[in-house]
Structure formats: structure tokens, C-alpha cells
């Protein structure tokens, strides 16, 4: 026994209470130890005393039937201060005990010998003691016996505490297993089922009562899987109680009703009380597998879609090339007949071949106007074709924007007047800029004519001014406006705003994209703001020295 | 207002009868005499034979295109000074450059206005 330092009160009380020794009720094993102590020491009285904070109580008594006593003058109070057997040969001769109530009587106790009960930490929390009504001594053997028996008593307390902890732990484990959301089955190595939790009942259909003790491993765990588990188990070291490496396997468990259920098996081989066990967790993965199947299916669909997309892309590229070719050929082929139409109309309208009556003249003017529109469309198509092919060449020169804007406004005036819309211009003095006059006129003309197209009443105003190194031209209308969702598409070739289609406003959807290309080719920017049913404002910024020849 | 015998002679070459007719009408009614050709070879032959004061030549023609015709006119002493106006339905700037490289004096893009053609012709003849 290792020597213990005098224990502090707190240590002793917590040591005692740590054993959780019940005060009431007899304890046969401890009673026998106490009897043995009495017999070994030839004493009429033996006590297993436990020293609590204020009192001493007796777990086991031979020769007396004491109720708990106050600590004060009791012998054991001294015993717990030391770490070895404490002896009082004659209490009446000892001042510390002579006046004690159990000493100072006719047949009072005279002799005391107590061996401290020492916890694993060496804290004394009680004593196994023998008493006699006559003064005496203990022989060495008796003292040894007392010491050994005291240790045995402590071991009993330790054992009980461990057992209790185990029980608690077991109970916790059981409740976890029981309440677990995973099916838990414990097999013996021969396949006999030992444990079966509620989730297992639920998942596999057999109740615990039906299944425990039977051997249905080949149903629950497929035979081939079971062979592998058993083989793995056989490889384990016999003396080793730690689980072999947990193994996870996806497989199929068969339920009581004969359904094949996709599960993930987690095998936890373990040696329990000398018996090899295979603990198995079964996780229902039908959902996961369903998801996986779905994912796989989705993936296949996606791949198919990808292939489809690729072929669509190729097809689109082909179509794009075809479109370019088409645009080129068509516009080229249109130019020659247009030359004829417009050329002959010009001559006829010039009345060179002969005078026209008013109706003839009016109709031919309409034909002339229409052919001009057609010409513009062809021009736009060609231009877009060029831009997309990266062939927009500019003929750079000095451009007088003020006069250019006036020309644009004048050119668009008939259309504005026809719709009874006010088309006005307010221009501050502008510097000459470098650029392609024809293209800039085309860009601004497109924006202005677009504004007129989409304005049913009110006005279209063209404002211009210099801002730093830029010239700003704004075209503001009181028209139908552009839905927010469409505003980003306005400059995409062939895009037509929903208002254009719903209100049957004619156009190819090329004007604004051409305007943008031209402005950007000049190093400028074009932006648009719009409020539906209130109007639209285009803002073009062109650098004064944006492009050079 | 058809031209008299001393009016300048102009060669108009185009395989498209309709366009050719337009060019011829415009020029004849502007006081010029006009001879025609319907392909490049004919154009060169007639130019060499008749020494027109000016040639209006379509680029896209069978046998020899407008560029070739221009080059051949420039290559011969008798025809090298004849002003050439090319008519083109092609739109690439490169085509225009090609025309000038071949030795053309001017070009008109289709669709062109007959009045514009007349102005260009007058300008070139006035210059030469």
C-alpha cells in the first residue's frame, strides 16, 4: 500500500460519495468481510465505518447495532487522518477518547484498531475496525489481516462503482442503439442474431422477439457478403477486443416480406465477453440510390443534351455561315434589279420619255419611295454582314456634326410630320470631329428614325453639345418606351422590341445595331434609358479625335 | 435630243440588257453617242476598233470581267487613255481598290442614279 498524504476533508468526502454507497440495507459480502475481521482479530466487535462530512456511519457491524454518530470523538476520525492501522490499546487511558459516550460506561469499549479504507487515489474515507471491551493489542498477523480486509472492502466498493458505470454505459448504449435511426443488428460469429433494434424491426419487418436467437443472416446479410465478414473476422487477433476496421459495403438486404432493399452495411466486428460478434448497421440507401439513379439519368440526359447542343451549335454555325452567304448573295442580287427599278423610275419621273399625268406621277413616286426603303434594308443587311465579318471600313474625314444633324432631322421630317410628331433640334456649337460622315449620318439617322417610329404622339428632340473631349448627341422621345427586360437586347441585330411586334411597327431590327457598330467603330459609346409608356432617351458620345485616317 | 455625229462616243458594257438599256438611255439623252458590248471581250474589241471617248464598264461580265477589260485597255497604246467608269454591285472596299489598281478612273456602286452617272461622265470628259 502506498503511503497516503493526510487527505483533505473535501477529497475524503468526495471520495466517499464517489462510491455512491447506499446507507440502508445489508450487504452480505461486506458483512462477511466485517465478520472475518472480527474473527481474525478475536474481537467481539467489528465495524465498517464510513466517515462523512459531519458524521460517521456504519455500512456493516458485528457485535453492535449503532446508528450514525457525530465524528467528533469517534476513533475512526483519527484513523482517516493516517494511512495505516491506527490502534488505541486502552481508550480509558487515552485523553482523546476517555470521555467518549461509548467508552465511559461500565462495559464500555476499551480497545480500538482500525485500518483506513483508502481509495485508489490514497484518500482515506472510512475504516474497517475491530473493538474490544478490554484493553489489548493486535498481533502482526491480525494487523495484516485487518489491513488486507480493509483493502478488500475498498475493492468491493470499486467493483460496484465500475459495475454501475458499466450498467449506465450499457443502458446509454442500449438506448442509443434502440433509438438510433439506423438498423442495428448484432450477430454471433455463427450467424445467430443477438441484438435487433427498433429501426431494424421497422426496416426489415421482423420483430425482435421473432428474430433474436435465430439465424437469418443469409436473408439479412447476403451470403457472399457474410462469407467476407466471417473471413475478416477469422483474421482478427483472438485476444484483441478492439473492433476490426469497420467495413462499409453497399448491398441488398432482404426484408421479411421478401423485398430487396438497397442498404449500406457497416460491419463492426467486436469480441464481447469472449464471443466474437459482428455488429452491423444497416443504412437505408434507397433514397440515396434513387437520387443516384436520378442523377445518372440526368447526367445521361445532360450528355445527350450536350451532344444535341454540340450538333445544334454546329448547325447554328452552318446556319450562320449560310445566313452570311445569303445576306451577301441576296443583297448583291437585289442591287442590280434595284438599279434598274430606281434608274428607270428616275428617268420616267424626270418626264424625259414624255409627260406624266398627276396620277401616274403620284403612283410612280410611291414606287420610287418604296424602292428607296427597299434599298435601305438591303444596305442595312449588307452592312451588318460586313460588321459581323469585321469588314466595316470607315472613310475618315472631318465631319461637321451640326450640319450633319440638321441633314438627319430634315431627312426625317416628312415621317415626323406624317405622324404629327414634333421633331426638333437644339444644338450648341460643336467642334468638327474626325470620322466617316456617311456612317455617322447613318447611325444618327437610324436613331432618329427609330425614335419617330416608336413615338405615337409628343415629340422627338435631338440635343447635342460638347462634353470635354466628346460630342454628345441625345435623341429623346415621348414614345412607347422599351420594357426593362428588353433594353439590353436593343442593339442586337434583328432584335425587335415586343412593342414593335405588338404594335406592328415595321422594321428589320437592324437600325440600332448598325448605329451601335458605327458609333463604336468611331471609338464612341451609345447608351439607352427608357421608361415604358413614357419615352426613351438614346445618348451617343463620339470622341472629337476618336479616329484618324 | 439624240447626239449628233460630233458628240463624244461612249462605250457601255454590261451583260445585263436592262442595266445596259438604262445606261444607254441616260447617256444618249445626255447628248452622247453610245456603242455597247455584252461581255468583256466584245468591250475590248469595240474599244480598240472604235476608240470611244469614255467607257462605262460593268465589273461582272462573262469572258472578261471589268477589271480585266480595264487592264487590257490600259495595256494598249490606242486605248490606254480612255477614261473608264466601273459599275459594281460588289460592296467590298477591296473591290473598289481593285478597280483603281486596274486603272479605272471612277466607279459607281449599284444601285446608282442615272443622273449621277451623267455627272461622272461629264466630269471625266470635261477633264480629259
In short:
The complex is a heterodimer of chains A (549) and B (128). Chain A is of the alpha+beta class and 549 residues long.
Outline the structure in words.
The complex is a heterodimer of chains A (549) and B (128). By secondary structure, chain A is an alpha+beta fold. Chain A is 44% helix and 22% strand. In chain A, helix 10 packs across helix 14 (511-521). Chain B is of the alpha/beta class. Chain B has one domain (9-127): 3-Layer(aba) Sandwich (Rossmann fold), CATH 3.40.50.2300. In chain B, strands 2-1-3-4-5 form a 5-stranded parallel β-sheet, with helices on both faces. The relative contact order of chain B is 0.18. The model of chain B has no long low-confidence stretch (mean pLDDT 87). Chain A binds chain B through residues 331-332, 335-344, 346-347, 350, 352, 375, 382, 386, 391, 393, and chain B through 16, 18-19, 22, 25-26, 29, 89-93, 109-115.
The level-1 CATH class of the largest domain in chain A? Alpha Beta
Instruction: Give the biggest sheet of chain A.
Output: 6 strands, antiparallel
Write down how many β-strands of chain B occur, each being a DSSP E stretch of 2 or more residues.
5
CATH topology of the largest domain in chain A: Beta-Lactamase
Residue share in helices of chain A? 40-55%
Average pLDDT reading of chain A: 82
Strand order of the largest sheet of chain A: 3-2-1-6-5-4
